[in-house]
Amino acid sequence: MRRARRHLESRKADAILLTSMSDIRWACGFSGSNGLLIILADDAIFLTDGRYETQSEMEVRGARIAMAGYDLFGYAAAHDLLAGCRRIVYQSDELTVASFQSLSGLFADVEWIGVKEVLVRDIAQKSDVEVERIREAQRLTEAVFDAVLDWVRPGISEKEISAEIIYRHLQLGAQRMSFEPVVASGPNSALPHAQPTDRKLREDDVLLLDFGCFLDGYASDMTRTIALGQPSSDVREVYEVVLDAQNRALAAARSGMLAVDLDNAARTVIEEAGYGKQFSHSLGHGVGLRIHEWPRISHTAEYVLPERCVVTIEPGVYLPERFGIRIEDMIRLQPMGSENLTRAPKELIVI
Predict the structure, then answer these.
(1) What is the domain class of 124-350 according to CATH?
(2) Is 167 exposed, middle or buried (0-12, 13-18, 19+ CB in 10 A)?
(3) HSE-up of 293 (CA within 13 Å, CB side)?
């Protein structure tokens, strides 16, 4: 809450209105699905509905709690919760046009200041407690990976593997998946965000697995590529290129550097190997209360990476109609380097 209040002074505002549920959780601790947080210079009010009365009393810190029903904006207007506020910051990238029209209609005298990504730099700088939660989520995901490796074999479909990944995560205590698992075999592995299909694994396939979960509110994310049967020389060559690119980025990664420079550390390796056009996405992204957070690490990201942020490093090479290779770890950035939060082995696993 203290860090959020800094934006009042910097933007000469009287209040900040948070409508993103993950940002509300970061600011005051509430983990439910409906809420509004009003942050004033010397006060804060959290609004939710009666479903969350007990939960909000257990979780919310640093804010008064109001049971507002389902019309949170209407309650704020009826109870004059923004009295005296003339300039109010709202999350323009989180509020729909219809919701903003409703809000501005209720508070006609307010100057509304729409700000995109208002708290992203604050949220990116993870506390030790947050990093530990991410680490625990990652350990759970790695346990699932180990179990799935013992289970995968030719004849099993991509959808069956996806279902097994989801089941094992939930069985071990995950709240939910970070995203639908990417399970891509053979030529499907050349699709960076392939969805699981009915295709059955075959001998000599490449199998790309990208998955993660939420545990205690924080996400994990990992990609590994494995081979069924002895891989071809082309597969081994591309795998070594991708692994070398990731290792170069991991060695270069530190807070204080430009995101574009970190992307280039990996991208240059892939380009020099002749696969530059086949690396079609950014190198990584932030991870925390959301699976995709700021900062994005790409060849266009001309901003400084902050200390204590957790990001993925996930170079890939994708050869259409043949195969794709991606390797992904999560790291915490520090001034003198980085800490790798991922322990799963990265040598090419052959089943």
Answers:
(1) alpha beta
(2) exposed
(3) 30
| DSSP letter (8 states) at residue 79 | T
Lay out the sheet containing 44-48: strands in order across: 64-67, 44-48, 36-40, 15-18, 87-91, 111-115
- What are the pLDDT digits (tens) for 202-253? 999 999 999 999 999 999 999 999 999 999 999 999 999 999 999 999 999 9
Average pLDDT over residues 183-188: 98
Whole-number Å distance between alpha carbons of 252 and 244: 12
Write out the residue limits of the CATH 3.40.350.10 domain(s) in the chain: 2-118
Q: Are 211 and 228 in contact (CB under 8 A)?
A: no
- Cα 344 to its chain centre, rounded Å, is 19
Percent of the chain with pLDDT over 90: 100
* Average pLDDT in the chain: 97
| Residue extent(s) of CATH 3.90.230.10 domains in the chain | 124-350
- 235: CB partners within 8 A, 6+ apart: 206, 227, 323, 325, 348
296: how many CB neighbours lie within 10 A of its CB? 17
| Joined tokens for residue 282 | 């950014």
